[in-house]
From TrEMBL:
It holds the Pfam family adh_short_C2. This is Glucose 1-dehydrogenase. NCBIfam families: PRK07231.1 (NF005559). Transmembrane segments: none annotated. Homotetramer.
């Protein structure tokens, strides 16, 4: 039996994980809609099944308009993957400005409210949908100096659980993934100002993973595929750790 083609929206589409998620969804034959501040990194994936929008996801009206267009065009939105995010450079709390706190909360948390609120009506209409949010293992296994980032990822996990119970009667599933330190450009942004990035990658990040390597974006793409699929049809409100054991 032919597998039905799904329509999947991915935020943070131009980032390390976002691109890997998109590649895997396209390989599965799905239609993918990618949103990011810049989608230049996706130019090599150009094909009819991929539609990209350069959008600041904090601009609610713009997001609503894109989702409306997607539903009008395809008549369905099966999955939303919230893969955007920003890092915090390790900083003692006394030196963290209110602007920096607000920026992290806006991008990492408010964006989830905006995209989820926008997609839920379309998913409710079809009584089917899966929402996956990329949070971070740091929410439960913190490192010093990342207090605002960690708080934002904890909020992402709680938001997921709150929505999972709210949306279960409509057959919508909502889950979180906690990646461990991952091999994308973001990793270097967690280091303290002035630190040697390559050295920190090995001595701090790789060392902290029991399975002995950084998470590859494809590891996250695989976990996303599972949570989007019918194989996970009884999985909701959960957090999947894809961290090589970092959370242990
Ligand atoms: N890399 C890691 O070590 C790591 C570990 C744990 C969790 N995470 C989380 O995984 C997710 C993906 O991270 P990544 O490693 O792919 O990082 P990345 O920096 O490669 O990608 C993040 C993307 O989000 C986009 N983005 C940021 N703000 C946006 C906005 N307002 N509107 C639209 N797009 C916006 C950026 O342009 C970027 O392309 C993030 O939520 C991150 O916090 C990353």
């Amino acid at each position: 039996m032919a597998v039905e083609q799904q329509v999947i929206i991915v935020t943070g589409a131009g980032g390390g994980m976002g691109k890997a998620i998109i590649q895997e969804q396209l390989a599965k034959g799905n239609i993918v809609v990618g949103l990011d501040l810049s989608v230049a990194s996706l130019s090599d994936l150009a094909q009819d099944a991929l539609q990209c929008f350069e959008v600041n996801v904090l601009q609610e009206e713009h997001v609503n308009e894109v989702f409306k267009q997607v539903f009008a065009k395809y008549g369905r939105i099966d999955g939303l993957v919230n893969a955007l995010g920003i890092a915090q450079a390790a900083t003692p709390i006394e030196q963290v400005s209110m602007d920096e706190w607000n920026r992290l909360m806006d991008v990492n948390v408010k964006s989830l409210f905006i995209t989820t609120k926008a997609v839920v009506p379309y998913m409710k209409e079809r009584q089917k949908g899966s929402i996956v949010t990329i949070a971070s293992i740091s929410a439960v296994r913190p490192r010093p100096g990342l207090q605002a980032y960690i708080a934002s990822k904890g909020a992402a996990e709680s938001f997921t659980r709150g929505l999972a119970i709210e949306l279960a009667p409509f057959q919508l599933r909502v889950n979180t993934i906690h990646p461990g330190p991952a091999d994308t450009q973001m990793l270097s942004q967690f280091t303290a100002q002035g630190a040697d990035i390559e050295q920190t990658k090995q001595s701090v990040f790789v060392q902290s993973v029991p399975l002995g390597r950084l998470v590859d974006p494809s590891d996250i793409a695989g976990a996303v595929s599972y949570l989007l699929s019918d194989a996970a049809s009884m999985v909701t409100g959960t957090t999947l750790h894809v961290d090589g054991g970092r959370g242990l």
